[in-house]
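Task: fold both queries, return tokens.
Query 1:
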Amino acid sequence: MPQPGPDGSPKRYRPRVIRIEPAPGTVVALLLLIGILWLFNRLLPVVLVLVAALIIVGTVAPAVRWLELRRLHRGLAIAIVFTALTVATSLLITLTVPSLIDQATSLMDQEPELRARLAGWLAGSNLTHPLAELLRKVHSGDLARIAATNAFEYSSRALAICAYVLSSVFLALYIAIDRDRLRGGLFLVVPRSHHIRLSRVMLNLETIVGGYIRGQVITSAFMAVFVFTLLKCCSVPNALALAAFAGVADVLPYLGALLSVGAAVAASLSRGPAVIMVVLVLMLVYKEFEGAVLVPRIYGRALRLPSSVILFSLLAGSVLLGVVGALLALPVAAALLMLVEELRVELPGQQEQAEDVEIREKDDRGEAEYERRAEGMPAEQAAAIAVEISTDRHKEETQ
């Protein structure tokens, strides 16, 4: 209740006015941030193509370096590696796509018979009887119309994805060939006192990308071997093609599980309900095993990420950018943690340890050596010296 004033009348309070007057610099920075975010959103496909190209370069860099150590010219080494990748991709497509098309055509021809058999099997139980009635009402013509309606949309998306993939490959080829000039231009922009740290960041990024690709190859190979063994034991036709398809689909988080399980179950429809249930259950069990055991251990060792960070990164990436975000989530998370370590970012509550002092002293010695060796040299040669110093230090730390 309001207190009475001196004359006995109720005392009135004036409303308190809070004024927010941001500084001009803050307003300009906020507008620039909004403009950058808008431009990033508009150029997102271009950014994704660049990121994919850098991932390809980081993946093939160890193979190119290995060939260079065997006294091959860098251009010839790049040609050999990219040719090998092209041949392997072509063989994989040749192995899987025709068999999958033949099997899909066969399934479409057998669809009425398979649907009737499945409906009869579901009608034997009161719990699944409504599903049997629903299957009997579905006609092949309805499925064909739905497929024809969505065919154009899916084909246009497939062409766009192929165009982006080819653009990433060619951009990666140009980056790999012109590596020294591009690296020199980057070092020319960054202050000279940060060249050693920049070279360490680039070396660690290459390690992260290589570890991610190796982990993906391992999990995809395990999936392909498991699917091939399972389908062979169940006498399902085209087991090799389906195994290759499952290995490739395993690259896609979440969606890959649906594709691989769906393809395996569809291929086993002609073998009867018992084989269908065995394939379905074992595929689901393996996917749980892969998600709970293989992925955290393999990627955790390669990327030095805890299991909780791996799961959170996959969820965040899929929510923000869908399948592409899920694919890039793990290397991006590992790169962010690496940048926090390399740039010596002090997190809240973090106390300096003796190891941090030792690392800082090594940084100072490396920068002093770089200044001595790179004095008066052009940017390309100075960048090569910085990378050499960082590589030697990385080998010492690894040993």
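Query 1 returned. Query 2:
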Amino acid sequence: MANHKSALKRIRRNEAVKLRNKVQHKATRNAIKKLKDLTSKKEANKLLPSVVSMLDKLVKNNIIHANKSANLKSKLTKQVTSL
């Protein structure tokens, strides 16, 4: 068990941050899945910028790696253009 107030606070803070990261990551994964399932090019073009924005935010907050985001954005863009 932690012996210092700052360590106890850090434990609480880490849990809060972990939960927030998990929620953001899950929301992004759901949005990606939704985008992949779309068959309408118009709807896909409308949803793509928001998914790209979500991925960029995850990278900015170090939740996912920049290369993973780039690969996902590339694949999604390629898929949307092929619709």
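Both queries returned. Flag for query 2: The mean pLDDT is 94.
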